[in-house]
Design goal:
The complex is a heterodimer. The longest helix of chain A is centred in the last third of the chain and has 20 residues. Chain A is of the alpha/beta class. The two termini of chain A are 33 Å apart. An 8-stranded mixed β-sheet of chain A has the order 3-2-1-4-5-6-7-8, with helices on both faces. By secondary structure, chain B is mostly beta strands. Chain B has one domain: Beta-grasp domain (Ubiquitin-like (UB roll)). In chain B, strands 2-1-5-3-4 form a 5-stranded mixed β-sheet, with no helix packed on it. In chain B, β1 and β2 form a beta hairpin. The longest helix of chain B has 7 residues. Chain B starts with a strand and ends in a 5-residue tail after the last strand. The chains are: A alpha/beta, B mainly beta. The interface between A and B is medium-sized, with 47 and 20 residues.
Chain lengths: 263, 67
């Protein structure tokens, strides 16, 4: 395990090291962190780039989509030559070249129930980022992270409305208090708003991706007491009036996913 | 009657109105929404049991799943 930055890393990450809340210790934490990003579209490609640039040690990308022409205005790592190719492979190739401290693993598949207990997915990482574009996947990822007693950072946007939160298991309280994604949106919810259906401005999308990345970086560089302040808060973004609002999440006592009798 | 604030606008309600009755009064589909009461999310399963109080600030928003 690294105990100090190399000279090259000091130079490369000097803008982080200068921050009192990060410093050398925080940068070392990033350089030893491992994350899983599920969904490598508008949110996921930008989160992957920001985390790789920040020095996260290992990023696993999971998606089975290929690049399409309609992706190009909002998925800025892709160009016309990439159309038809797997997004995970393109992102791995481009980010590996640009950010040599970061190992990137591309997994060409959708997240499914079989990933629940896979050593290579949610159990072996410090953080899971939900960057998917559909409700069914979000429910599945939430359940997997709760089962694995992991940490989930979930963002979504459609039209002008974005939503972001972090939930995390703690030995003291399980998910008690904040609950989980299914406490917020039970599985019988009507959720039809995707970017493809409702549209989205790239700048609004990338604002959400940046906040999702920032929440992840804050988590990875924080201590236990600081992390308590990061989880269980739902951040609501209105791209029309440029406003963020923070509200406290609540556990549904009837939740079939995260209440103590279910875990 | 009591007065609450619903999505930023004043709304008069009868005494003992539940959160679910408020949603129905507004002709909204409960299954499409999340609800925040005074800056705290209220799980949908609790809406029928919780009565609105004078000066409550209640906001609803739709789920989004795009990425």
């Amino acid at each position: 395990m690294m105990s100090k930055l190399t000279d090259k890393q000091y130079i490369r990450y000097s803008s982080h090291v200068l921050l009192p809340e990060i410093g050398e210790l925080g940068q070392l934490k990033l350089l030893q962190s491992s994350v899983l990003i599920i969904g490598v579209g508008g949110l996921g490609h930008a989160v992957a780039q920001q985390l790789a640039a920040a020095g996260v040690k290992h990023i696993t990308l999971m998606d089975d989509d290929t690049v399409e022409l309609s992706n190009l205005p909002r998925q800025l790592l892709f160009n016309e030559q990439d159309i038809g190719q797997l997004k995970v492979n393109i992102v791995r190739q481009k980010l590996s070249t640009a950010y040599s401290d970061c190992k990137i693993t591309a997994v060409c598949k959708r997240f499914t129930a079989e990933d629940f207990y896979s050593v290579d997915s949610v159990n072996s990482v410090d953080l899971v980022f939900d960057c998917t574009d559909n409700f069914a996947s979000r429910l599945l990822i939430n359940q997997a992270v709760v089962n694995a007693k992991g940490v989930l950072i979930s963002a979504a946007i459609s039209g002008a409305n974005g939503q972001l939160f972090c939930i995390a298991h703690s030995k003291q309280s399980n998910f008690h208090g904040s609950g989980c994604y299914q406490c917020l949106y039970p599985d019988d919810s009507n959720v039809s708003q995707s970017c493809a259906q409702a549209g989205v401005l790239t700048s609004a999308l990338l604002s959400m991706a940046s906040m999702q990345s920032l929440l992840g970086l804050n988590w990875l560089t924080s201590d236990v007491s600081q992390r308590d302040r990061l989880k269980g808060q739902l951040h609501l973004f209105n791209a029309h009036n440029l406003q963020w609002r923070k509200v406290t999440m609540s556990q549904d006592p009837d939740c079939c996913i995260c209440t103590p009798s279910c875990i | 009657m009591i007065t609450i604030e619903f999505n930023g606008l004043a709304q008069e309600l009868g005494y003992n109105s539940s959160l679910l009755q408020l949603i129905e009064l507004k002709n909204l589909n409960p299954k499409s929404l999340a609800l925040v009461l005074n800056d705290q999310v209220v799980p949908r399963s609790r809406w029928a049991q919780i009565e609105c109080q004078h000066s409550d600030k209640i906001d609803v928003f739709s789920a989004v799943a795009g990425g």
